Amino acid sequence: MSLTIRPIEPSEWETLGEITVASYLASGFLTANSGYADYLRDVGARAESGTVLVALDSTEIVGGISVVPPGSKKAEVALPGEAEIRALAVAPTAGKSGVGTRLAERAVTTAFDELGATAIALCSKDTMHAAHHIYRKIGFNRAPHRDWAPLPDIRLLTFTLDPASYRPTSLDE
Fold it and tell me: Model pTM?
């Protein structure tokens, strides 16, 4: 796989939105009629309030991730100075290929190097074990005191990363 990760272009918003929903549906993290599906599809809104990165294998979009800058009103768990990573998704056809790790690492460098974050926070559904593995592998630590539940049947785990804990594994760009 020849992977390129870069900021998304407006012409790619719809494609990434559908890939993100497909990824979450295929993994069992979302139902088709969920209100969260609307958020995941609305890549334009995420791009207007932060940085959306897209992963391409040649010219085919195979994943994406959003980075909310420090101080943004769109952040859900970030404290002052922290950026927030959201909506990591890999196309079902590209699973287990390293795309998720590469996207997460690029989001981290974007947050620290381009957005000036002092730390990074993210939340992840308690059943998203593959994502948790990626986050732990690159240095994120659990912050259970910041866990929360947006709905009674959804538990979100919070992870944080400071620059000293970051352990890049695959960046070669």
Answer: 0.92
